[in-house]
Write a structure and sequence with these properties.
Length: about 450
């Protein structure tokens, strides 16, 4: 699998060309340049063209960037498209989305970090699409081969049936077996197309097994995802951390309820032996779900202690995966708030004090400090109201960091809504099919006359 995105930059604007070079070349991403639509299409039509992403200027000498993006969509649908513009208007933005089918839109001067995030997201999406298409093609080829074999067998069956009527029953059974196999292949093809959706359903089903903690995984996931972004972890790791967070409590379904509710110092030797094995048993149960392999590894390490006294592998400090250390702290914090072990619910301050008493024994002190800071920020954040994206107005303020369904940061806390932000949100909704409800600070609602 390719590690770096191959980018085709199409612009005749020298200022835009230099802006893009300054943003892209330091990342060591392969960059091909063209100054008009004709040259760009010639580059893409080369045999085995490596291009993954098209960065195209709205204004080109021989046509406009929207027409080129539309043509690339028609001829090379797997290539992702990002539009660049110096002085766009709202009409241009709408045309770029509806006709050019672009995944993102940037204006000069370029915001380097946002451009990098958009390029990496587009590249990762293309890799997923290519992988899915490759698997579908392979399955289709096997399916076609099976159909051909079935047709051949049916033809031979007719000859045999004509020669020996006594074999009718056996032939009918074989034909039915082939028919059932064909149905199985059809079902497998459908399974492949919806693999991600089925994985999420498995997560939800597991979480419902412990009704007393229903929704706990989502709360752990929300906090873990925010922390992961604070630590600037890559998107794949953030996604796997979120999956693991949702499965933190579900991974204990292999244990009896009375054992889950006991403190370890109250367990006898036999109970401790069973309890110490649960991460390995849960890992074995979840390992067939290849799309959450990273999450499964994090769950295996969630009972490890930084002083090496944990289980099942007795790892120490940074030998324990960062996601495991992070989820251990957040899970235990939630357990203290809810009184899971002794029925005594602690307020946030006492819960944090209890965690600090075990830092550098059970918990990573540096991570615990970051989580405490994050919790204080969340406790002190301004009151907000969820506002549908269709009701957004200029001057509204985002009350807290807002993440997309795939854990990418879309808007940061304190962002002031303007026409460009609204266009960005509408573009994202059209691309993803999501309907967004955004947390808007109540004070800004009063200023805009909507509060």
């Amino acid at each position: 699998m390719k590690l770096l995105p191959n980018i085709l930059l199409v612009t005749a604007n020298s200022f835009m060309l230099e802006e893009c070079r300054r943003s892209i070349l330091p990342m060591k991403w392969p960059l091909v340049e063209a100054n008009n639509a004709h040259d760009a299409l010639c580059e893409l039509e080369k045999e085995h063209s490596p291009i993954d992403l098209l960065l195209v200027d709205l204004e080109l000498p021989d046509t406009d960037g929207i027409a080129l993006a539309s043509e690339v969509t028609r001829k090379f649908s797997s290539i992702k498209r990002i539009m660049l513009a110096q002085n766009p208007n709202t009409k241009d933005l709408i045309r770029a989305i509806n006709k050019g089918h672009v995944q993102n839109f940037f204006t000069l001067p370029l915001k380097r970090i946002q451009l990098h995030e958009a390029i990496l997201h587009a590249f990762k999406t293309k890799q997923w699409d290519d992988e899915r298409k490759q698997k579908e093609n392979s399955l289709h080829s096997k399916y076609k081969d099976l159909r051909t074999r079935a047709k051949d067998l049916k033809s031979k069956a007719k000859v045999i049936q004509h020669q020996n009527r006594g074999l009718n029953t056996d032939l009918e059974n074989r034909t039915e077996e082939l028919h059932q196999t064909s149905l199985f292949i059809d079902a497998a093809q459908l399974d492949l197309t919806h693999a991600y959706a089925q994985t999420i359903e498995v997560f939800s089903g597991l979480l419902e097994l412990h009704n007393s903690k229903r929704g706990r995984g989502k709360k752990i996931s929300e906090l873990a995802v925010v922390l992961a972004h604070e630590l600037k972890l890559p998107p794949y790791e953030i996604q796997q951390i979120s999956y693991a967070a949702q499965l933190v409590e579900a991974s204990k379904v292999v244990l009896k309820d009375e054992l889950v509710c006991k403190n370890s110092d109250e367990m006898n030797k036999q109970e401790l032996n069973i309890f110490h094995k649960y991460p390995i048993i849960a890992e074995s149960a979840l390992d067939p779900l290849k799309h959450i392999h990273g999450a499964v590894q994090l769950l295996r390490g969630i009972e490890e202690n930084v002083d090496g006294s944990g289980f099942p592998d007795h790892l120490e400090k940074h030998s324990i995966k960062l996601g495991s250390r992070m989820l251990r702290i957040i899970r235990d914090y939630m357990a203290l708030l809810n009184g899971d072990k002794d029925g005594i619910k602690l307020d946030p301050a006492y819960a944090l004090e209890a965690l600090h008493s075990k830092e550098e024994i059970l918990y990573d002190a540096e991570l615990l400090e970051k989580i405490e800071q994050l919790l204080h920020q969340r406790l002190n954040k301004e009151a907000s109201t969820g506002i549908d994206s269709t009701e957004l107005q200029k001057e509204m303020i985002i009350a807290e960091d807002f993440f997309t369904y795939d854990y990418n940061l879309l808007l940061t806390q304190g962002t002031i809504i303007d026409d460009q932000i609204i266009t960005k949100i509408m573009s994202y909704q059209q691309e993803s099919g999501e309907t967004l409800t955004l947390p808007i600070a109540n004070s800004s609602l009063q200023k805009t006359g909507t509060g």
